[in-house]
Amino acid sequence: MGRKRNLSEYGGREDEEEKQMKERRVKEKQEGRESMRPSMIKNKEKRAAVHAKLKQQKKVEKRKKVKAREAAEKKRHLCQGRR
Fold first, then answer.
1. What is the pLDDT of residues 28-83, one digit of tens each?
2. Distance between CA 17 and CA 24 in Å, rounded?
3. Which one, 12, 19, 54, 65, has least CB within 10 Å?
4. What is the pLDDT of residue 17?
């Protein structure tokens, strides 16, 4: 009765960039699960070190995402300007 439709049913397609972004997100989630969380460490000094490293990694990933988003947005504006 009520089922979700795929984009292909509407005639639309996903861009390759969107597929790549989805694949990256899946990989990042899998890597995140494998790493040890700071809350699992009882030693205060080691826990602080792991927390700092994790926080730094998140900052780096966030910067990469922002740059990728800006680049995609810029590319989209350039393509629209040519029409």
1. 776 655 567 878 888 999 999 999 999 999 999 999 999 999 999 888 888 876 65
2. 11
3. 12
4. 75
Distance of CA 31 to the CA centre of its chain: 12
Six token digits for residue 57? 């990694």
Q: Provide the terminal-to-terminal Cα distance of the chain, rounded to the nearest Å.
A: 41
| Residue 25 in tokens | 């997100």
Residue from 74, 81, 82 nearest 17 by CA: 74
Long-range CB pairs of 4-12 (<8 Å, 24+ gap) are none
From CA 66, how far away is CA 72, in angstroms rounded?
10
C-alpha–C-alpha distance, residues 83 and 78, integer Å:
9
* Residue 41 near residue 47 (C-beta atoms within 8 A): yes
Count of Cβ atoms closer than 10 Å to residue 54 Cβ? 15
